[in-house]
Design brief:
18% strand, two-stranded antiparallel sheet, four-stranded mixed β-sheet, 7 helices
Amino acid sequence: MGSLVLHFHQVFIFITPVDVIAKEDAYSQFFDQSWGNLPEELGNAREAGKQGLILFFEMDECPFCARMRETFFTRKDVQDYFKPRFLILPIDIEGDTELVDFTAKETTAKAFSQKNKVRATPVIIFYDLEGKQLYRHTGPTKDAQEFIWMGQYIATGAYKNKQRFSQYRRAQRAKK
């Protein structure tokens, strides 16, 4: 029995780090690398043939942000949908990281978040390739499928028809 417990601990020790590394890699692969210059990021998105830019406003102690990071952004289907269509950047609403906003003004992540009236997290904002806000969602999505529908809402242009995301989501659920 003692050797069985020892063997279990050895297996657990060797399996757990691989699982954690895989999750970390998947999360880091969801977000694009950035130097914090949003006008430059819009240019990068255009050059890469993307449809727009997504800013994911978050903070460390936000349980809803953590849930999205750990259960949605690490999923292959989510990454496969979003990565070809959008440049995706995280913004720490409490961060002192310097960035250049869409008007080419130097600021910090915290000040940029305040300027965009981000008070609760997560906030997901979709921008077109000119830096115009297309859609803003406050709070987590129910599940990964709803998050993908949010991307489809923008990518298909459904938002242009003055249809609210809640209506779009309801129609998508009815199709299932």
